[in-house]
Design goal:
Distance between the termini: 26 Å
Radius of gyration: 18 Å
Number of helices: 10
Helix content: 25-40%
Strand order of the largest sheet: 3-16-15-10-9-8-7-4
Number of strands: 16
Structural class: alpha/beta
Shape: globular
Length: 304
């Protein structure tokens, strides 16, 4: 058997393995560091960060559903200066890559955050044009190919680090949005963000979330995510970070077979704090069992 190699490369940045955290589900790493050896992760993708602090949406903003979870947190965050001063130095103590998810209400705000990160000690930027829980920015840019290209091009122009663009599934044709982002200069894509959903308390006869609607994540959306990763992987030539309902190593392998180079673990962090490590171990176990020596071999092995 060949030597096992779990490394992946995204836009020239080498990750020791393909497992990352999905933005908004792992804080900035500190919150999980008592439970997870951050040295074992390919990358930590921190919660979405904006130029100034955002309060987020009103509570309640979390609801459990069959096979998943609805959230309408609304990108609550302390602002870019806190991230640079406190969170990045903390993460740099560990042997893992740092990816910063950035948010904005206008193209100019996205660019300001990316510019501010220019001198920060991070590895990549993830451009969030897919959050369904903010009224301005977010998904407004991610549902139109022209706007996706426009905002990507603007941020790419000022960003010093490789740029990942995170796509929303709340569109009729995600391939056209992916092509728009790539045309704008995206070095990689991450997909999918949450699906727009709603839950109702039948006794109170009221929506459970204060925001009425929220983003659905978890195993319930995995088949949708797999389908979209498969479609986009055939249409573009940049690495894809797949996510959406990954609970274990087998789920991660499914995304790779669909065409993903890396994977991100999201909702599973809430049900099992060590889910990311279980996914790393699960991938390694699968590779040994089936004789794969690299992640790339898995990605190219889907049979029809």
């Amino acid at each position: 058997m060949n030597k096992l190699n779990m490394k992946i490369n995204i836009a020239g940045i080498e990750l020791k393995n393909p497992v990352m955290t999905a933005s908004g589900t792992f804080g900035s790493g500190k919150e999980y560091s008592d439970y997870v050896d951050l040295n074992r992760l390919g990358a930590v993708v921190v919660k979405g960060i904006s130029m100034k602090p955002w309060k987020g949406n009103s509570s309640p903003r979390i609801a459990e559903t069959y096979g998943g979870m609805l959230n309408s947190v609304g990108l609550q965050n302390p602002g870019i200066e806190v991230l640079i001063k406190e969170d990045i130095p903390f993460l740099r103590q560990y042997d893992t890559k740092i990816i910063v998810n950035i948010a904005g209400k206008t193209v100019e705000e996205y660019c300001q955050v990316a510019e501010r990160l220019g001198e920060a000690d991070i590895d990549m930027i993830e451009l969030n044009i897919s959050c369904p829980n903010v009224k301005e920015g977010g998904v407004c840019f991610g549902t139109d190919p022209f706007m996706a290209e426009h905002v990507t091009k603007a941020v790419k122009k000022v960003a010093k680090q490789p740029l990942i663009v995170k796509l929303t599934p709340n569109v009729t044709d995600i391939v056209s949005i992916a092509k728009g982002a790539v045309a704008g200069g995206a070095d990689a894509l991450s997909m999918i963000n949450t699906l727009l959903g709603m839950a109702i308390d039948i006794n109170k006869r009221k929506p459970i979330l204060a925001n009425i609607v929220g983003g659905l994540s978890g195993p319930a959306i995995k088949p949708v995510a797999i389908r979209m990763v498969h479609e986009v992987a055939k249409a573009v030539d940049v690495p894809i970070i797949g996510m959406g309902g990954i609970m274990n190593g087998d789920d991660a392998i499914e995304f790779m077979l669909a065409g993903a180079t890396g994977v991100a673990v999201g909702m599973a962090n809430f049900t099992s704090p060590t889910a990311t490590i279980e996914v790393v171990d699960g991938i390694e176990k699968y590779m040994k069992k089936h004789g794969f020596s690299s992640i790339d071999e898995i990605r190219k092995s889907l049979q029809y």
